[in-house]
Write a structure and sequence with these properties.
InterPro entries: Cellulose/chitin-bd_N (IPR004302), GlcNAc_Chitin_IntDeg (IPR051024), Ig_E-set (IPR014756). The longest helix has 18 residues, at 2-19. A hairpin with a 4-residue loop joins strand 8 and strand 9 (183-193). By secondary structure, this protein is mainly β. The protein has helices at residues 2-19, 35-40; strands at residues 26-31, 58-60, 95-97, 102-111, 115-122, 144-147, 157-162, 168-178, 183-193. The chain is built from two helices and nine strands. It has a single domain, classed as Coagulation Factor XIII, Chain A, domain 1, CATH 2.70.50.
Length: 194
């Protein structure tokens, strides 16, 4: 009897894994370090609950024509992650970048999901790091796109791309578009170009 019960539990678990659920799909950028990653690493104080779940910045996909509202892009419209939208007077720790150089962009996942693409946007030269992120502050076209056509990326995954020409403090928005849900993951990274 116990063996039959054990086999039934294993079969049910296998069915659950085979069908998959989007709730287990999460990730964030570690290179350049995202705001959520910096919070989880305790490099920034007063982060709220994002420090315990940096992988959970998930919101509607379709950016930039859809997706999170202006001023709430970095939190993906999650009020419990609103600390990510706070520009903190432009004092978020920033990764050093070299204008026009090649760079490895890295995502880390707590679970991997079927993927449409990864897209990387950068702020315009007129960007004001003391204000919450808006679409008007970002270039409308990604400077790097990696298409996956529904396949699952490795964990972690790295995309090599060329950085745009910029000077001073900027922000890179990485968007991970999920293939079989209506959502995407949003990852904001503060950077400074020398």
């Amino acid at each position: 009897m116990q063996r039959k019960l054990a086999l039934a539990v294993i079969a049910a678990a296998g069915l659950t894994l085979a069908t998959g659920t989007p709730a287990f799909s999460h990730g964030y950028t570690t290179s350049p370090p995202s705001r959520s990653y910096r919070c989880a690493q305790q490099q920034v104080a007063n982060c709220g609950s994002i420090q315990y779940e940096p992988q959970s910045v998930e919101g509607p996909k379709g950016f930039p024509s859809a997706g999170p509202a202006d001023g709430h892009i970095c939190s993906a419209n999650h009020s419990e992650f609103s600390q990510l939208d706070d520009p903190r007077g432009g004092t978020w720790p920033a990764a050093s970048m070299t204008s026009g150089a090649s760079y490895n962009f890295t995502w880390t996942f707590t679970a991997i999901h079927a993927t449409t693409s990864f897209r990387y946007f950068i702020t315009k030269t007129s960007y004001d790091p003391t204000k919450p992120l808006t679409r008007a502050a970002l270039e409308s076209t990604p400077f790097l796109t990696q298409n996956y056509n529904g396949s699952r990326p490795p964990n972690p995954v790295t995309h090599r791309g060329t950085l745009p020409t910029r000077h001073g403090r900027q922000l890179i928005l990485a968007v991970w578009d999920i293939a079989d849900t209506t959502n995407a993951f949003y990852s904001c990274s503060d950077v400074v170009f020398s």
